[in-house]
Write a structure and sequence with these properties.
With 329 residues, the chain is of the alpha/beta class. The chain is built from 12 helices and 13 strands. It has helices at residues 3-10, 16-29, 43-53, 60-70, 72-80, 97-108, 122-135, 148-158, 177-189, 207-213, 220-236, 296-305, and strands at residues 33-34, 86-91, 113-119, 144-145, 162-167, 196-202, 245-252, 257-264, 268-272, 276-280, 285-290, 308-315, 321-328. It has a 7-stranded mixed sheet with strand order 4-3-2-5-6-13-12, with helices on both faces. Strands 1-11-8-7 form a 4-stranded mixed sheet. It is globular and about 65 Å long. It binds N,N,N-trimethyl-histidine.
Length: 329
């Protein structure tokens, strides 16, 4: 098989490692230094995020799970609309744990729909393709492995039915507010009038609660951040000594921005692939991640600005998290 046909099958750049390398070098040669949180999720990072979702301080997962288990019928009624057949497309499906509650209910209602999980991880997609038809008999599943917008186009080429897009887990929080606005507009451009978006968004709340979620006592978030340096060591042949970096999470209640940094504990040099040398000054930071928090007014503004009409908002009992349904206009 030649490279071109492999590319069409998986829809990945010819060499994922080279993209990773280029992004890392660019980020570490910038001022201030930065790394992209999308690279957190290798096999070790996936496991650490799983642990994080089970730890006491990390509330978003539990809140959204409560919404999906307590308000399943209401959410499904809203997305079923007038009963017209639809495709349920999930961006970044992961293990599809939360969506399984919806899928199960929709099957029980004999809703006419198919499920198209999209994920950048090949493992995730082959796992879902294999397991979902067994755990949810009768479910039509088509896993799509690739990036969001390419796979949305692919989904549109496979079916002309109404689309309901799921974007859960506050993944939209990993973008700066301006980037989230642009992303929602792009998403709208890949949809048609009458399509829907069900988006999970973390709300502004007591700053101590937010900060604790990104600074858990067990140190999972710290390891989650340091794992990206270790991943660079493993995959790009670098020599980071993670003991010389400290995890520094911040939350600004005014802007709702929760940001994580790694701080260099001494003057040091790191070599990547034996050729690139990166110099760190003592106390210099690497910007790792943003987990933006919103209020309801802001989310409605983003919806309208992107060409959606906010239809419903589902809260958890503490009002810490929302799942909003937006209708494409
Ligand atoms: C998976 C992006 C929603 O930002 O809350 C958890 C990732 N980072 N702890 C988040 C994460 C640190 C998480 N998202």
């Amino acid at each position: 098989m030649n490279t071109a046909s492999i590319q069409t099958l998986t829809n990945k750049p010819a060499n994922i490692t080279e993209q990773f390398y280029a992004d890392v070098i660019k980020g570490l040669q910038s001022t201030p230094k930065q790394l992209s949180s999308k690279y957190f999720y290798d096999a070790v990072g996936d496991k650490l995020f799983q642990d994080l979702m089970n730890c006491d301080e990390y509330y978003p997962t539990n809140c959204e799970l409560e919404i999906f288990t307590e308000q399943t019928a209401e959410i499904c009624q809203a997305i079923m609309g007038n009963g017209e057949a639809f495709d349920l497309i999930e961006l970044g499906a992961g293990n599809a744990m939360k969506s399984t509650f919806l899928l199960k209910y929709l099957l029980e209602q004999n809703a006419d729909f198919s499920y198209l999980p999209i994920d950048i991880s090949e493992n995730v997609i082959s796992y879902l393709n294999l397991t979902l038809p067994v755990s949810l008999p009768g479910l039509q599943v088509t896993g799509l492995n690739g990036d969001y917008f390419n796979m949305l186009k692919k989904a549109a080429s496979l079916s002309k039915r109404r689309k309901v897009v799921l974007f859960l887990g506050s993944n939209v929080g990993n973008m700066l507010v301006g980037d989230a606005e642009i992303f929602c507009k792009q998403l709208r451009n890949h949809l048609s009038k009458g399509d829907m978006l069900l988006v999970g968004i973390d709300m502004k709340k007591n700053p101590k609660t937010v900060l604790a979620a990104y600074n858990d006592k067990g140190g999972i978030t710290k390891r989650f951040n340091l794992n990206l340096l270790e991943r660079i060591n493993r995959e790009l042949g670098a020599d980071f000594d993670v003991a010389k970096f400290e995890h520094y999470p911040t939350y600004d209640p005014e802007t709702g921005s929760c940001k994580s940094y790694l701080i260099s504990l001494e003057d040091q040099q790191v070599k990547i692939r034996g050729k690139e040398t990166i110099c760190f000054a003592k106390d210099e930071h690497i910007y790792m991640e943003i987990s933006q928090k919103y209020n309801v007014i802001q989310t409605n503004q983003i919806a309208s600005g992107a060409g959606f009409k906010p239809l419903n908002i589902f809260f958890d009992s503490k009002k810490w998290f929302i799942d909003a349904i937006w209708l494409a206009e």
